Amino acid sequence: MASNIIFSTVISSIQIKDKKLNKALHNYAYKLKKETKNKIVSNEGGFQSDDVVLQQKPVKDFLDKVTPHLLKHVNLYAIQGQHSVEITNLWFNINKQHNLNWSHIHLRGADFSAAYYINIPQNSGDIWFKNPDIGTHVSEIFKSEKKSWNSFNSSFWHFSPKETQLLIFPSSLEHHVKPNQSRKDRISLSFNFKVLYGS
Ligand SMILES: [Fe+2]
User: Fold this and answer.
1) Cα(166) to centroid of ligand 1, in Å?
2) Could you list the residue range(s) of the whole structural domain that residue 93 is in?
């Protein structure tokens, strides 16, 4: 028997491992929180910044560092011809104790989205992705006990983020963040990007 995997969803995970840059992003998040107004988008409590200026340090340094990884992720889609990536927007999130993010998608003209984790205390909230195959939310077989979880039998998939980890996923993929159950702040940044065609 041949088992043909005909469609799938890929999320790339990369450890950025630059403590100095991470510290600069950490300080920048608190500077934004202090000096700018809070936005309510997917967040229940917590701080969500406006879109930041991409050319400003340390955001520019961060984007320079992660862009090769974004291109590697796009390569999985085997696009023919010259192409590059453009960041469409980027913002910071600070979730305090009990804060969470409701289920949402990013899209807004982007192809892909990413989350980078600046400060992740223990039990500060996993990110949960919803299987875009609607069958996995209605069919009985997805409700029964399993010997183990795999990409065929899961209606949700969650990650326990680590500090300096970057996750890249399709902008259309619905996700939510569980409540922060620690007393410390959970700090992350999110961004969207699209593929540009031609040289
Ligand atoms: Fe999000």
Assistant:
1) 13
2) 12-132+155-184
